[in-house]
Amino acid sequence: MKTDFLQIEPQGIFGYLLSDFLNSVPQFLLVILAIVLVTGEAIYLNQVLNRHEVLYKNTRLPALIYIILMSFNNDVISFHIILLVNLCLIILCDKFFSLFKNENASKIIFDSGMLIALVSMFYLPFISLLLFLVIVLIIIRPFRFREWLVAFIGFLLPYFFLGVYYFLKDTLQKNVSLVLHESVFGIPETFRVSLQREAAYFLFVIYLMFMIFVSLVRLRANFFKNTVKTRSTQQVMIFISMLIAAEGFFLSHASLFFYLQLAIPFSVFIAYLYATSKKRVWLYEVSLWFFLILIVQSYF
Predict the structure, then answer these.
(1) Using CA of residue 74, residue 205, residue 93, residue 60, what is the dihedral sign?
(2) pTM of the model as a whole
(3) What is the DSSP string of 62-120?
(4) How far apart are the C-alpha atoms of 153 and 175, rounded to whole Å?
């Protein structure tokens, strides 16, 4: 049995090439690859958060929460494009957090812009992360026109070289027309989730939103108790969750899988809630077990 590549039409200039390759791979290999990727991303995300002091103390909770959120249903236990998107998103967060009080930030900003462009060639909605880069520069860096220019040059450079290549092959106009006529952005269609599964998703999403709300309340209460760097990185995570959530309303083919990108900021918020729990610890333990019960029942 072959995967349908996340039930999302391939998007981007090279999206169809990647889709065709992955659809030729046996399903069991894709499942193994997905497990390896999710595990590796969880470990990497945890290292990034601890190294850049995103939480007020070092903890392994973000890795645990990330794995839970990335495996909330058996439909997502397979290889899909969002796994690669999340890996690149964690890499970008690592680079963005490194910009804090960095006097040699131009190289990091250039690399970030180029990475966004390269990923958007395979998954076009990733292009919205250019706006995220601008937000990060506003939050973490003092305004420097040179750095903003470097970011846009880094983003445009891969498309420039690709355009030159297509121009020399006399296919530039054809490829530009294909991209412009791709129905990526527009009024979103209904999520492709069967009616039989909606109840399981609904309970999980409602409880998840409740946990995020409580986490953000706790984060706000302790916000000014943190260091300047911790506050800045936490603001970045809040803005990225808002950007991803808003982006889904402007995609013509939004899928439930698209919102797996939110597993990165959500794992930070929920981990912060559990890490700062000092009273009635048993209540938080029960809430985590209830979380797991909801996930288990969604597999049936």
Answers:
(1) negative
(2) 0.84
(3) HHHHHHHHTTSSGGGSS--HHHHHHHHHHHHHHHHHTTTT-TT-HHHHHHHHHHHHHHH
(4) 22
